[in-house]
UniProtKB/TrEMBL annotation:
CDD domains: HTH_ARSR. It comes from the Bacteria. InterPro entries: ArsR-like_HTH, WH-like_DNA-bd_sf, WH_DNA-bd_sf. This is ArsR family transcriptional regulator. It comes from Lentzea aerocolonigenes.
Length: 180
């Protein structure tokens, strides 16, 4: 099971955006039959089977085994990931975006999601995430942004060689939204 699946096809999103189907998918965190899921959700096995088939068709769940129960073959199904991220591209870009627009941050966040979802998560991967808050007086904004740009450019120059493991750096700087 993968950590993350990135959904960028409308049919996948439509399949996932049904509350009852999400509940079925949650029950498939471990391999289960439709009958077992139906019991937990107080549904009929036929109704759960319909939802499971839709999840399988969309690539959100898969049949992992089969067993014989009272002379009948019964499938065991499991979700293919622990998390499902929906791409903002499913809605599409509305208007233009430049590097200073907040929409550019949405594009950056989506690129991070795509990259993280594509990583092989079978082993620990070296990474770092940092988040913090910096307070800058309006008269110091230009100096702050200049120092930030210089610091990052220094890192890119120092470690930007052609050898070694490649790391992507994404930095988002945006107003917090309140003045606390």
């Amino acid at each position: 099971m993968r950590d993350v699946i990135y959904l960028d096809r409308m049919e996948q999103a439509e399949t996932l955006l049904k509350p009852q189907r999400v509940e079925v998918l949650r029950q498939l965190a471990a391999p289960r039959s439709c009958t077992e899921v139906a019991e937990v959700l107080d549904q009929t096995p036929q109704r759960v089977h319909y939802h499971v088939k839709q999840l399988v068709k969309a690539g959100l769940a898969t049949q992992v085994a089969e067993r014989k129960v009272r002379g009948v073959q019964e499938g065991l199904y499991q979700a293919v990931a622990r998390s499902y991220w929906l791409s903002p591209r499913l809605v599409g870009r509305i208007g233009s975006r430049d590097e200073l627009a907040l929409g550019h941050l949405v594009d950056l966040a989506e690129q991070i999601q795509v990259d993280v979802a594509a990583l092989n998560r079978d082993s620990e991967l070296p990474s770092v995430g940092v988040s913090g808050e910096i307070r800058v007086r309006p008269e110091d904004r230009a100096q702050f942004l200049s120092e930030l740009q210089t610091t990052l450019q220094d890192l890119f120059t120092r470690y930007g060689g052609a050898e070694g493991d490649a790391f992507r750096i994404a930095l988002a700087c945006y107003p917090k939204g309140d003045n606390r």
